[in-house]
UniProtKB/TrEMBL annotation, chain A:
UniProt protein name: Daunorubicin resistance protein DrrA family ABC transporter ATP-binding protein
SUPFAM superfamilies: P-loop containing nucleoside triphosphate hydrolases
Location of the ABC transporter domain: 9-251
SMART domains given in the database record: AAA (SM00382)
Bilayer disposition of the protein: Peripheral membrane protein
Domain of life: Bacteria
TrEMBL record, chain B:
Subcellular location: Membrane
Membrane topology according to the record: Multi-pass membrane protein
Keyword line: Membrane, Transmembrane, Transmembrane helix
Pfam families found in the cross-reference section: ABC2_membrane
InterPro entries the UniProt entry points to: ABC2_TM, Nod_factor_ABC_transporter
Record's protein name: ABC-2 type transporter transmembrane domain-containing protein
PANTHER family membership: ABC-TYPE MULTIDRUG TRANSPORT SYSTEM, PERMEASE COMPONENT, NODULATION PROTEIN J
Start and end residues of each ABC-2 type transporter transmembrane domain: 7-213
Spans traversing the lipid bilayer: 21-43, 49-75, 96-116, 136-158, 165-187, 220-240
Keyword Transmembrane: yes
Length: 327, 257
């Protein structure tokens, strides 16, 4: 007999529009479509990434899935429970961790924060002490748990967040940019913790800005831009979508006006972007497969000062930029 | 049992959190002192003595408890929103109103200190010797009043879940409640149309019970009404908070942005 397992997260045409009103006498309202009908499914034990620029709709999507926001369209189920009609059942089984300094009680110690949330999340009294101890060990805060959170570094706070999110042993963990603002060592430890969680059977939905993090951790990635999913695949498949071409990177000290448009108009150029890095601007050009646009691009930069010129294979970041720019 | 444990642990941790600010601590030292000084001076100017002075002392101490709760209860949820913990409270698989009980009770507990401060200040600064005729009844009345004020604070705080600026409500009703609940003047001296409002506010019954115990009368009937009205706030809060949380999810007001 073939056993068909139901996806842990099922999202079908999920949408959310925010309405804001202003004015006292003559009230006017404005609508912002933050999420415009996204659909995807996450399997049990999967680490699913949601990747997108600021304002793309990542956090709004997560907040609808964990029942903090009501969708204005579509439907979603988490562990078989509808996020609107069965919000209480969803809350019992999911964990939510977000990045940044907020979400903790500064005047309490790390231990007291965990004790408080253990009560709130219904961890049985006989298990609570042991569970808190286990989690402090897991996130590397054992020995520092009696210090007040206001004295914690950002990395320590983030680890405490993770411990809080795991207190009630959630089957699905939602991580909303958990590594934001953490130093590289802390971020690496965090990735190891997330990997361990997935190995022990927790399903994870992660949003991140860091491409290497998504590349290293995620089984599948959905790229979201302007409230829509523009690509959904494994990291290697996403890279494959642009690996048939090459990427040219040139450090230019002052890109002249109109050059970007001229380069973009070249027949073999797929996309162009400019990033400021220190005093230089990095001109990144994606070329069609089998073509070399170096000479053509350099021709447009005639008279400009430039440094490093390299041609390389596309990364996940290139794939992401191309997908987002095309959206 | 589980609910009691939740309220107990959360109350203790909230109390711990609130008692760790030096600035808040200083204010809670000064506030009851201001109230007590104003009231005692008013009553002394009017040549009040005996039961009238005792009534004033009880009323001013209740003012301290109420002020500690009313001005901070609604603001406390705004603080939870600012520090990003409001969403985590809503995510907890518990009735939201239940999570507010320890929060407002911790404020009322801090406010209860004003009872001791007021009585001590009256004695040290104004030479008022107060004799409590029924100490046990008085103690029970204080505990029940603290609980009742905490429950009323919870009812006020609930609106802050949905409306980001509802914290101003607590400050707006701080002083009207002093009058309506008979903290300063007897409820019987208020206009007839105000009295039904006084009757549905639990602090009215709590202060009446404290005064009765202090004067050697039975406080139990007043305490019964106090518990009944406070419990009804719990029921109302349970329904209203569900609606407020649903509305906050619809209007995206649980977070700051």
């Amino acid at each position: 007999m073939v056993r068909v397992t139901e996806p842990v997260i099922e999202v079908d045409g999920l949408a959310r529009t925010f309405r804001s009103r202003k004015g006292l006498i003559r009230r006017s309202s404005k609508e912002i479509e933050a999420v415009r009908g996204v659909s995807f499914a996450v399997e049990r034990g999967e680490l699913f990434g949601l990747l997108g620029p600021n304002g793309a709709g990542k956090t709004t999507t997560i907040k609808m899935l964990i029942t903090l926001l009501l969708p204005t369209g579509g439907r979603a189920r988490v562990l078989g429970h509808d996020v609107v009609a069965q919000a209480h059942a969803v809350r019992r089984k999911v964990g939510y961790v977000f990045g940044g300094d907020r979400g903790l009680y500064e005047r309490l110690s790390g231990l007291d924060n965990l004790r408080y949330f253990a009560e709130l999340y219904g961890v049985p009294a006989r298990e609570s002490k042991q569970r808190v101890g286990e989690l402090l060990e897991l996130v590397g805060l054992a020995g520092r748990e009696k210090e007040r959170v206001e004295g914690y570094s950002r990395g320590m706070r983030q680890r405490l967040h993770i411990a809080r999110g795991l207190l009630h042993r959630p089957e699905v963990l939602f991580l909303d940019e958990p590594s934001i603002g953490i130093d590289p060592v802390g971020a690496r430890e965090l990735r190891a913790t997330v990997r361990n969680l997935v190995e022990t059977g927790t399903t994870v939905l992660l949003t991140t800005h860091y491409m290497f993090e998504a590349d290293e951790l995620c089984d599948r990635i959905a790229v979201i831009a302007r409230g829509r999913i523009v690509a959904l695949d494994t990291p290697s498949e996403l890279k494959q979508k642009v690996t048939t071409g090459t990427v040219l990177e040139i450090d230019v000290f002052g890109v002249p006006d109109g050059v970007v448009e001229k380069v973009r108009a070249e027949p073999d150029v797929l996309s162009v972007s400019v990033d400021v890095q220190g005093q230089a601007e990095v001109l990144t050009v994606h070329a069609r497969p089998g073509t070399d646009v170096t000479q053509a691009v350099m021709g447009h930069l005639d008279g400009s000062r430039f440094g490093r010129v390299i041609t390389r294979q596309p990364t996940l970041e290139d794939a992401y930029i191309e997908l987002v720019n095309a959206a | 049992m589980r609910t009691l444990r939740l309220v107990g642990v959360a109350w203790w941790l909230q109390l711990k959190m609130r008692s760790r600010s030096a600035f808040d601590g200083l204010l809670s030292l000064l506030y009851p002192g201001f109230f007590a000084t104003t009231i005692f001076m008013m009553f002394k100017q009017g040549d009040a003595a005996g039961p009238a002075l005792l009534s004033a002392a009880v009323g001013s101490s209740a003012m301290g408890i109420w002020s500690a709760v009313s001005t901070t209860a609604a603001f406390a949820l705004q603080m939870e929103r600012r520090q990003g913990t409001l969403e985590l409270l809503v995510l907890a698989p518990q009735p939201f109103a239940l999570l507010l009980v320890p929060l407002t009770l911790s404020m009322a507990t801090i406010g209860a200190y004003s009872m001791i401060a007021t009585l001590l200040w009256g004695r040290l600064a104004f030479g008022i010797h107060l004799t409590i005729a029924d100490p046990l009844g008085f103690l029970v009345a204080v505990v029940v009043t603290v609980f009742a004020i905490g429950m009323l604070g919870m009812l006020i705080a609930i609106s802050s879940i949905r409306y980001r600026f509802a914290w101003a409500l607590g400050s707006a009703i701080e002083m009207p409640v002093w009058l309506i609940c008979g903290f300063l003047v007897a409820v019987s001296d208020l206009p007839a149309w105000v009295r039904p409002l006084s009757a549905v506010l639990s602090p009215t019954w709590g202060v009446a019970a404290m005064r009765a115990a202090a004067n050697g009368q039975s406080p139990w009937a007043d305490l019964g009404w106090c518990v009944l009205t406070a419990a009804s706030y719990g029921l109302v809060a349970m329904f209203v908070s569900r609606w407020m949380v649903h509305s906050a999810r619809a209007h995206a007001t649980l977070a700051l942005s």
